[in-house]
């Protein structure tokens, strides 16, 4: 009787280890997928694709042409490799 119970316990422990292993594998896969999405959607990834962020001197982001200011105003352009000044024209 003790041997039968020991065999049942061994089987249950083995099964629980397999189930836990599958759960951990699935969680790892989901985490890797989430990380990939976060990296792809990050502002740095957007800049790496060739986009720039324009900011006015007060730090506000330029979202539309009318937000850029008057001709001659200086804006800061942030790109993946750094930043530089640009001047508004027209």
UniProtKB/TrEMBL annotation:
Which residue ranges does UniProt annotate as crossing the membrane?
Answer: none
Per the record, the coiled-coil ranges are: none
Q: Domain Exonuclease VII large subunit C-terminal, which positions?
A: 4-86
What Pfam families would the database entry show? Exonuc_VII_L (PF02601)
Q: Which InterPro entries match?
A: Exonuc_VII_L, Exonuc_VII_lsu_C
Which PANTHER family does the protein's record reference? EXODEOXYRIBONUCLEASE 7 LARGE SUBUNIT
- In Swiss-Prot or TrEMBL terms, this protein is called Exodeoxyribonuclease VII large subunit
Q: State the species of origin.
A: Streptomyces sanglieri
């Amino acid at each position: 009787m003790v041997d039968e119970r020991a065999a049942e316990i061994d089987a249950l422990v083995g099964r629980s280890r397999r189930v836990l292993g599958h759960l951990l594998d699935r969680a790892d896969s989901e985490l890797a997928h989430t990380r990939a999405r976060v990296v792809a959607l990050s502002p740095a990834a957007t800049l790496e694709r060739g986009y720039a962020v324009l900011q006015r001197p007060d730090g506000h982001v330029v979202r539309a042409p009318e937000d850029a200011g008057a001709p001659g105003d200086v804006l800061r352009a942030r790109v993946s490799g750094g930043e530089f000044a640009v001047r508004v024209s027209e």
